[in-house]
Amino acid sequence: MESLFLLVPIALIFVAIALKVFFWAIKSGQYDNLDTEAHRILFDDDEPDEAQRTAPKTSGRHPESDNQTDGKGS
């Protein structure tokens, strides 16, 4: 019974913090546009990113495979 005197105020504090964060998210516009992100996956990116255009072409091999030893040591 004594633990309830500690746990109930702690639970009320957690609820108050959760409500404050929720209302802050609503006020700051976090829930204003829910459709854009849902539809974004349906559209293809026609142009590659800048990083993909400037990245050097590789031969298809992993660079780490060149540095591996045959298990006998150096």
TrEMBL record:
Region (Disordered): 43-74
Domain of life: Bacteria
InterPro entries registered for this protein in UniProt: Cyt_oxidase_maturation_cbb3
Assigned keywords, A-Z: Membrane, Transmembrane, Transmembrane helix
TM spans (from-to): 6-26
Pfam family, one: FixS
Residue ranges that the Swiss-Prot or TrEMBL entry lists as coiled coil: none
Classification via PANTHER family: FIXS PROTEIN
NCBIfam families noted in UniProt: ccoS
Protein name: Cbb3-type cytochrome oxidase maturation protein
Originating species: Marinimicrobium koreense
